[in-house]
Write a structure and sequence with these properties.
The structure is a homodimer of 168-residue chains. Chain A is mainly alpha-helical. Chain A folds into two domains: 3-85, Winged helix-like DNA-binding domain superfamily/Winged helix DNA-binding domain (Arc Repressor Mutant, subunit A, Orthogonal Bundle), CATH 1.10.10.10; 89-167. Helices cover 70% and strands 7% of the residues of chain A. Chain A has helices at residues 3-19, 25-35, 43-50, 54-66, 89-115, 125-153, 156-167; strands at residues 41-42, 70-74, 81-85. In chain A, helix 3 packs across helix 4 (54-66). Chain A starts with a helix and ends with a helix. Chain B binds a DNA duplex (30 and 30 nucleotides) through residues 19, 24-26, 43-44, 52-56, 58-59, 62, 79-81.
Chain lengths: 168, 168
DNA sequence: CGATAGTTTCAATAACTATTGAAAGCTTAG
DNA sequence: CTAAGCTTTCAATAGTTATTGAAACTATCG
C-alpha cells in the first residue's frame, strides 16, 4: 500500500470510529492527520489535506487543544500558527479518559447521589427496586471513579505490567 | 424527592449520557426504565411511560435484546410479550464492553494490521512517522484487547479486589 | 377458517448536529 | 496609524440520524 492511500484510510477509519463514540468526525480526522505527521501543520495545511472549511478547521482545532491532545506551536519567522499532536498513544488515552471522566462521570455521580433518597415506603416494590438499582450503579461508578484516577496517574509499564501479572 | 420525579430524572440523565457515547437516546431510556422496574414491562407500557411510538419502541427493544441487555419474558395467560433487564450493573457493564469490543476494537485491529506495511523508504520522515504511529497504536489496542477479554471473563469481586490491591 | 391481538417493517418526516463561508476582530510590520 | 495577514465567530445551510405511523405481516383463539 502507498503512503498516501494508507494515510487516507487511517484518517477515515479514525473519523468514523469517533462518531460511534460521540466525537465529531472532523475533530478526529484532524487529530489523526496530526498524529501521523512528524512536523507541525498550519490551519491551511489541515484545510487542504482534509478538504474542510476554515471555520470547521478552526473550531475543531480549538476543541482538540481544549482536550489537551494538540498543542499550538510557534515557528520562528512564520506569522501563522502551527499545530502538533502528542504522539504517545498511552498519554493520549489517559488524557481522553481524564477529560471524559471530568465531563461525564463526575456530573453523573452528583445526579445519582441526589436520586439515592426518594420518599416513600421502603417495603413498596417499586421504591425498593429503584433505590437498589441506583445504589448499585453508584457503587459501580464510585469504583470506576477511583480506578480511573489511578489509571490517569499511572505510568504505562507499571499499569499494563501489573494488569498482565494480575491476569495470569 | 418523589419516586416519579426521580424515575423521570434518571431516565432522562441516562438518555442524554448515552448520546454522548454514540448510543441512541431511546434505547438508553428504555434500558433505564427497565433497570429500575422490578417486574417485566410490555411494549405498550414502555410506549406509554416514555411517550414514544410503536416503531421506535420495537426497534430499540430489539436492539437491546441484541446487545444482551434485555430479555423477552413470557407471562402465562398473557398474549403479549414482556421485557426484563439484567439488574446486575457489573454484568451489564461487561456485556457492553464485550459488544463494543467485538463491533469496534476487533475491526480496528484488522485495519491497523493492513496499514502497518506501507511501501517506501524507511528513512523518509513521513513514512517513518506513519509506521511508528500505527505501530504504537497497534501495540496499545493489542494490549487493550487482551485486558478487556480478561475483564469480560472476570468476576466482580476478583476484579475490583485485585485492582484496588494493585492501586495501593 | 376468519377474526382479533400483537408484532414488525419502512418510507416519510422531524430533530439534531456538523459544516460552510462571509463578515468582524485581532495582531503585527512598516 | 493603517494595511495586510491571519484568526475567530456565527447565522444559514447541508447532512445525518432518530422517530413516527400506517400498512403488512404473524400468531393465536373460538
Amino acid at each position: 500500500m502507498k503512503l498516501a492511500e494508507a494515510k487516507a484510510q487511517f484518517i477515515q477509519t479514525w473519523g468514523s470510529l469517533a462518531t460511534q463514540w460521540g466525537i465529531n468526525k472532523t475533530m478526529a480526522q484532524i487529530h489523526a492527520l496530526l498524529l501521523i505527521t512528524p512536523n507541525p501543520l498550519s490551519q491551511d495545511d489541515l484545510m487542504e489535506e482534509l478538504s474542510i472549511s476554515r471555520g470547521n478547521a478552526n473550531m475543531n482545532i480549538r476543541e482538540l487543544i481544549d482536550w489537551g491532545l494538540v498543542d499550538r506551536v510557534i515557528i520562528p519567522g512564520e506569522r501563522k500558527e502551527f499545530f502538533l499532536a502528542e504522539k504517545d498513544i498511552w498519554k493520549v488515552a489517559r488524557q481522553i479518559v481524564k477529560e471524559r471522566k471530568k465531563r461525564e462521570l463526575e456530573p453523573l455521580n452528583k445526579v445519582l447521589e441526589q436520586l439515592q433518597d426518594v420518599e416513600g415506603d421502603k417495603r413498596n416494590a417499586e421504591v425498593k427496586a429503584f433505590t437498589e438499582t441506583i445504589g448499585n450503579i453508584r457503587k459501580f461508578t464510585g469504583q470506576a471513579d477511583k480506578s480511573l484516577d489511578t489509571l490517569i496517574r499511572a505510568d504505562e509499564n507499571w499499569f499494563w505490567g501489573s494488569l498482565i501479572k494480575m491476569i495470569k
